[in-house]
Specification:
heterodimer; A: six-stranded mixed β-sheet; five-stranded antiparallel β-sheet; 10 helices; B: 242 residues; mainly alpha; MetI-like fold
Chain lengths: 370, 242
């Protein structure tokens, strides 16, 4: 990083050869990662895998021991440049990290640092406090806010900066479930609207599914897999990724009929019944946990299972995971189930064998697309 | 019977002292007034100087990791509890005619007292500042930087955020120097009209057996001490809310 280089990538941020070490132990070793314009890149991984460290490096809040980071093709070399680029991005941490002052001062503070004109700053603060539904709290002391309110203020503070890249480190962690849901959905619609390039760390699979254009899996400081969410969740590259993402089944389809809270969803010609009130015509992403699928040898007709959905297909893949085996069955759509090694042997399963996959209508999780 | 005789004498004795003290206070005894004003000037100046030097030192020690940092932190912590008499001795040695600062000719002047009190208050200010900055969530620093603060802007925000411990630091620093006697006595010499401050005067008057001035000054010292702390506490509690 001694000389400024020109990076021809069209990426908003590109990092090369990032290494962070504590003594001899490398805590982060990422040869290359890019943040593309307008994309939402979600970084997932177990605790201590280096997710936060990676985000801090990309946000230029931490200098890696090795490697370089380029912002819009320009390699960052000195502290003056670092400050300038920091003034074009924004970061939201897990804790709201509001300063001991009024909500209004908190939201306008970054704008002051960045030299935004007073009227402009006022308009932006107003707009974003309103957008996150906390305009009425403007004069309140930040320390008196509830967790959800504080988080909304910290998001408003970040968006008011109109960042070219937004970084979020587990932003919805530690909030109760209803608060988290309403905040996630507000955040999602803002993100779709502003099309801000975003890097977000989470370990909530649903959040990754709803928000991500691409998902990066970080384990033990190394980037194991990066790709579209369904690639990661349906086709994990190795056992470690698979066991971390607890790979389930992700399907895309649309509701074709609706009767009293039971939706009929079409996925590539296969029809599934799902407990959901979504109206006909809604495009959906469906999530089915691999634990919720029962695999059996019986054919569809004489299967006594109470499960509403039964699909038959051939075993196309089997990956051993300790005492369990992840079995992929091609039922027109690929479905993954996990069974114990023992049942695999007892059923005498093998590749190419025909089996039935059964699951309840309530086991499917539907996420509508707006 | 014997006990009540002793009691009466003691009470009269103290009673007289207090009565005289109040008459001095009410009539604005010139000598007392002069002593009080010099005390305020010397200790106020010493506290002010130690803020200018102590806060930056506290910020540097609180924010950075560098070799030898532990040594400096230990030095500050030791300084926070340094006996004023020892400080007085060291300062005396420095400003003594043949000492390194002897050319200044400040021994037995208010300047020497300010210097000694500065040495007493400065570690307190540094220590409180350091603690105030270190007790903040380290992520707050990152958040302020992420908002786009330059290094100076960040330090400013952190100090603003540490305003409660900083006010405590001012109270502790001022309280320490206005109430110390050993150093002021040694480097000032308790010269009437020149270097006599409240504490040195109290010691001097008591050793002469003249309790009235001692009591008057003690009462004043306590009132002053109370007033300064009341003021700072009010500021502190207000900023806690705002």
């Amino acid at each position: 990083m001694t000389q400024s280089q020109i990076n021809l990538s069209r990426a908003t941020i590109s990092a090369e050869g990032i290494v962070v070490a504590h003594g001899d132990k490398k805590t982060l070793d990422v040869p290359s990662i890019e943040v593309l314009p307008n994309e939402v890149l979600v970084i997932i991984g177990p605790n201590g895998s280096g997710k936060t460290t990676l985000v801090l490096c990309l946000a230029l809040l931490m200098k890696p021991d090795k490697g370089s980071i380029a912002f819009r093709g320009e390699v960052v070399t000195d502290s003056r440049q670092t400050l300038q680029i920091r003034r074009r991005t924004a970061v939201v941490f897990q804790e709201a990290l509001l300063l001991n002052s009024s909500v209004w001062n908190n939201v306008t503070m970054g704008l002051k640092f960045r030299g935004v004109k007073k009227e402009e700053a006022k308009a932006r603060a107003q707009r974003w406090l309103e957008r996150f539904g906390v305009n009425h709290l403007a004069q309140r002391q930040a320390k008196t806010l509830s967790g959800g309110e504080a988080k909304r203020v910290s998001l408003a503070r970040a968006f008011a900066l109109e960042p070219e890249v937004l970084f979020l480190d587990e932003p919805f962690e530690g909030l109760d479930s209803p608060t988290r849901q309403s905040l996630t959905s507000d955040f999602e619609s803002v993100l779709r609207e502003t099309k801000t390039s975003t890097v977000m760390v989470t370990h909530d699979r649903n959040e990754a599914l709803i928000l991500a254009d691409r998902v990066a899996v970080l384990i033990n400081g190394t980037l194991r897999q990066i790709g579209r969410p369904n690639e990661i969740f349906n086709y994990p590259i190795d056992e470690e990724v698979a066991s971390f993402v607890e790979a389930g089944n992700i399907m895309h389809g649309s509701v074709i009929a609706q009767t009293e809270g039971l939706a009929l969803v079409d996925i590539d010609g296969q029809q599934l019944e799902v407990v959901s009130g979504l109206p006909t015509g809604t495009k959906v992403t469906m999530f089915l946990h691999d634990d919720d699928i029962t695999l059996s040898l019986q054919s569809r007709q004489n299967n006594p299972s109470s499960a509403r959905n039964q699909l038959t297909g051939k075993v196309i893949k089997a990956i051993p995971l300790g005492s369990q085996i992840r079995v992929t069955v091609d039922c027109g759509i690929p479905l993954v189930s996990v069974i114990t090694r023992r049942s695999w042997e007892e059923m005498g399963l093998s590749l190419g064998q025909t089996v039935t996959m059964s699951f309840k209508a309530s086991a499917l999780h539907l996420i509508p697309h707006h | 019977m014997g006990e009540s005789w002793v009691y009466n004498v003691v009470m009269n004795f103290i009673g007289n002292g207090i009565a005289q003290a109040f008459s001095m206070l009410v009539h604005g005894d010139r000598q007392v007034l002069q002593i009080v004003l010099l005390s305020l000037a010397v200790s106020g100046m010493a506290t002010l100087l130690s803020l200018f030097v102590g806060i930056p030192i506290g910020v540097v020690l609180g924010l950075n990791r560098f070799p030898g940092r532990r040594f400096f932190v230990t030095l500050v912590n030791t300084g926070m509890g340094a006996p004023p008499v020892v400080v007085g001795l060291v300062v005396t040695l420095f400003v003594w005619r043949n000492g390194p600062l002897g050319f200044l000719h400040i021994l037995y002047t208010p300047a020497a007292m300010i210097l000694a009190q500065f040495v007493i208050a400065m570690p307190l200010i540094s220590g409180f500042t350091m603690a105030g900055i270190q007790q903040q969530d380290p992520k707050l620093r990152l958040q302020i930087q992420a908002l786009g603060a330059s290094r100076m802007q960040m330090v400013g925000m952190l100090l603003l955020e540490a305003r409660l411990p900083l006010l405590a630091a001012i109270m502790a620093g001022f309280g320490a120097v206005i109430s110390e006697v050993g150093a002021s006595m040694m480097v000032g010499g308790n010269i009437l009209g020149q270097t006599r401050v409240m504490t040195t005067a109290i010691v001097g008057e008591v050793s002469k057996g003249d309790f009235s001035i001692a009591i008057a000054l003690s009462v004043l010292l306590m009132i002053l001490f109370f007033a300064v702390n009341l003021l700072l506490t009010m500021v502190q509690q207000r900023s806690k809310r705002s």
